[in-house]
Amino acid sequence: MPTTPDTELRDQDPVDDGAPVATPSRRRFFTMGASAVATMAASAAVNAQTSRPRGKPLPVPVPVGTKPDASADWKDPLLRLVRRITMGLEPGEIALARSLGYAGYLNYHLEADAIDDSEMERNVVARFPMLSLPISTLKTTDSTEVYNQLADAALYRATFSKRQLKERMVEFWTDHLNILFAKVSFLKVADDRDVIRPNAMGKFPDLLRASAKSAAMLGYLDQNNSRKPTPNQNYAREIMELHTLGVDGGYTQNDVAQLSRILTGWSYDANGAFFFQRSFHDFTAKTFLGVEFPAMLSTAATSAYQAEGEAAITLLVNHPSTARYIATKMAKWLLAYSPPQAVIDATAATYTATGGDIKAMIRTILSGKNLMASPAKYKRPFHLAASSMRSMAIETTNIRTTRQRLDSMDMTPFYWEQPDGYPDRVNWWSGLTSQRWNWANYISTQNSATTVKLNAVANFMVPNTADGVVAQINARMFGNEMPASLKASLGAYLRAGTYNEARVRETIALAASSHQFQWY
C-alpha cells in the first residue's frame, strides 16, 4: 500500500535496462519520434543483437504533467461517456453505445438492474463460492481464502460485468465507506454483498443507513464496543467527516462527542447481524447539530434508545453540507479532479430534490456539455488493470495471479488502512510508472489455459500487417481516437524487428503503456 506523501512522484527513473543504444527499444519508444524509430529500424534489420531481451521492464513514460491532456484527442462525446462510465473501451461496448446514442446509453447503464448480467452472477457463484456463504459459515473458514475470493471477484466483475457503471460506483462507494479487510476479516464479505452492491445505484440515505448497521463498519471503527460513560468516538467522527458532512461541513468536536453518546449500543451479534446492546446506551440528554435529544427513562423501550441513532442519521443525510459533500465527491469521481462549481451546485440541488438519488445525481453530472468540457482523469491501478483486460479481450480461468499484481501497483483491494479510502488524486498515482508498464507487459504476454490469456491476439492481426495491427489497436483500445504520432510510433516499432505474434504482443503492451491509454 502507498506510504509515501501524496505529493511525491514515485519510481520515476528506474535504472537502464541494458538495451543497446541503437535499438528501437520499448524504453526509448515514447521519447522518440516516428522518424527516429524508423531510422533506427534500418540498423535493427541488419543487427541481430538489437532484439530486446524478453521479460525486461517496460519503458518509463514522460512524467505526468509534461504531456498535453490526453482528452485533446477525444472528439467524440459518446466515447468520452463510455470511458467515464465503464472500466474501459472494448469493441462490444463501443458498438452498444453507438446503437443507443448518448442519452440512451447513459440511461441503459443507469438502470443497471435491468441489464441481464445473469451469466456473470453464475460465474461469480461458481468461481468464488465463499461470497455466497452466511457469516455463520464464513467465520469458520480460512480467512486468507475468503479475502482472495472477495478481491478476485472485485476485479473479475469490474472487467467482465455488463453493469459497468454499477461497478464504477461500487468502487467509488467502497472507498467512500472504506473498511480494512485485515481488521474485520470475513465481515467485509457481507458488507460488500449486502451494503455496497445493493445500494450503489440507489439512494445515498439508504446506503448510509445500511452501512451504519454493517458489522464490518461497526467493527472497523470500533463502534461495536462503544458504551457509556466513555463512548468511542471513531465512528461518530468518520460518519460526519468522511461519510456525510465533510471536514468543513459545520460540525464541532462537541457534535462528535454527542453523536458518539447517541450511538452507544450500536453493535452486532456473533453472526454479524446488527444488534442493539441496550446496556451500552447512554440515555441522558444530548444536543447534536443544534437538535435536542431529551433524556429517557432507564426503563424505556430498547427501540426508543435505538431510535436516537436513527434520528441522528436522518439529520446527517438531510443536511445541506451532505448534499454538497456527496455532490462534490461524485463530480470529482465521474467528471474532473476540479469540477466546476456550477456542476457541484446543480448536483447538490439534485441530491436535495430527490432525497439523495444516486442515478439522478449521475445524470446531472454527466451531461454531454459537462463531459466535453472536462479534462481526462488518470486511471488508478485497479482501473488500469480492468481497462487493459477489457480492451485486449483477455480470457480468464483463474484471475488470482493476475489480481495479485495489483499489489505491486500499490492498490491491493480492500487493504487501504485509513477510513478515507484509496485516493482519487493524480499526484498520488502518477509516479508508479514502472509498475504500470510492467503490468502492460505482463498482461499482453499471457497465454495460459489455466489462468489468463490474450487469446484474441489474432484479432489484432487482421489484416496481418503492421498497418493492420495498428488499426486494430486503434479501434479496440482507443475507439479510433489514437493520435497520429502514436500510430506512427507503433507502426515503426512493429517494422523495426521480426514481424510475428510476439512482436504484435509487445506492440499491444506499448499501446497500453502509452500516455493516452493511461487516462480516461
Give a structural overview.
This protein is mostly helical. It has three domains: 29-73 and 377-392 and 423-513, no CATH class; 79-318, no CATH class; 320-372. The chain contains 25 helices and six strands. The protein has helices spanning 34-46, 77-85, 91-110, 118-127, 135-138, 143-160, 164-176, 181-184, 187-199, 204-212, 215-220, 234-243, 253-262, 302-318, 320-334, 341-354, 358-365, 368-372, 381-391, 400-404, 426-429, 433-445, 466-478, 484-496, 501-513; strands at 266-268, 274-276, 286-288, 291-293, 395-396, 452-453. The protein has a two-stranded antiparallel sheet with strand order 1-2. Strand 3 and strand 4 (291-293) form a beta hairpin. The longest helix has 20 residues, at 91-110. The chain is globular, with a radius of gyration of 25 Å. Mean pLDDT is 89; it is low at 1-66.
